[in-house]
Design goal:
Blueprint (H helix, E strand, L loop, with lengths): L3 E5 L3 H12 L7 E4 L3 H9 L3 E3 L9 E6 L6 H8 L8 E4 L6 H7 L6 E5 L9 E7 L5 H12 L2 E5 L4 H11 L1 H18 L4 H21 L4 H7 L6 H12 L1 H21 L1
Parallel strand pairs: 1-2, 1-4, 2-3, 4-5, 5-6, 7-8
Antiparallel strand pairs: 6-7
Helix pairs in contact: 6-11, 7-8
Keywords: Amino-acid biosynthesis, Cytoplasm, NADP, Oxidoreductase, Proline biosynthesis
GO molecular function, one term: pyrroline-5-carboxylate reductase activity
Protein name: Pyrroline-5-carboxylate reductase
């Protein structure tokens, strides 16, 4: 018997996970999506997915129930889900800033819950997802959840729920930092006379290549930096300016600011 996966919310992240799983051999019949927004729901139905406007008894056979709504709508969604949720289903929340205690309360005391923090590169299969499971989740539950997010990239399991806030600060928000740096590099290329198309290609390709190189070699990132930095050369001149401007410290502090904000959101 095939396992049914229910998504409460059919937005970008839910669609990315479904696409990843379909690419790994899952079938359309394995999924049920609850999506109240008609245009999104119609688009999902047009793809051949079973999609409902509201939660009903047909979620009863779910092995995994993914809460993929916006954080402000999560309590209402949980209130609808708890009436039909199987006792042995594992609930996964991808909403930032909503702790497990609140989720369990809103779900009527349900204990098998996993908090997940994926990031937007999941849309192209290159995501990084932080995961934390309650003690009630068995190894089989964790394995199912791990396989779910393996379809859209890498995973890291944390030992405490608090570390999900740290994951949020590093990889959840991280693409925003990278795009900020990329935009600055693109601007520099424009100022040097490149066309808009070429400036973007240069910036994106540089990041793609550097990330691929870093992923291919198990050496410290500082060593990779040293390899491309000749004393008195062009990279040296650029990096010296960045050090003088405190760029690295600013990035590190930005991560700390993001983590503090994530903790504030989690605390309500």
């Amino acid at each position: 018997m095939r396992e049914k996966i229910v998504f409460i919310g059919g937005g970008n992240m839910a669609s990315a996970i479904i696409d990843g799983l379909l690419g790994q051999g899952r079938e359309l019949a394995d999924f049920l999506v609850v999506e109240p927004y008609a245009p999104t729901r119609d688009a999902l139905i047009a793809r051949g997915l079973a999609c409902r406007e509201s939660v009903g008894a047909d979620i009863g056979g779910a092995v995994l129930c993914v809460l993929a709504t916006k954080p402000q709508g999560l309590q209402e969604a949980c209130g609808q889900v708890r009436e039909f949720l199987p006792a042995d289903a594992t609930v996964i929340s991808i909403a930032a800033g909503v702790d497990l205690a609140s989720l369990s309360q809103w779900l009527g005391g349900h204990a098998r819950i996993v908090r997940a923090m994926p990031n937007t590169p999941a849309k192209v299969g290159l995501g990084m997802t932080g995961l934390y499971a309650t003690p009630a989740c068995a190894e089989a539950d964790r394995n199912r959840v791990d396989a779910l997010f393996a379809a859209v990239g890498e995973r890291i399991w944390t030992d405490t729920e608090a570390m999900i806030d740290a994951v949020t600060a590093v990889t959840g928000s991280g693409p925003g930092y990278v795009f900020h740096f990329m935009a600055a590099l693109e601007k520099g290329a424009l100022e040097l006379g490149f066309s808009a198309d070429d400036a973007r290609r240069l910036a994106v390709s540089t990041f793609r290549g550097a990330a691929g190189l870093a992923a291919s070699e198990a050496v410290p990132l500082t060593e990779l930096q040293e390899r491309v930095t000749s004393k008195g050369g062009t990279t040296y001149a650029a990096l010296s300016h960045m050090r003088d401007a405190g760029v690295a410290d600013a990035i590190t502090q930005a991560v700390r600011k993001a983590e503090a904000r994530a903790r504030e959101l989690s605390a309500g």
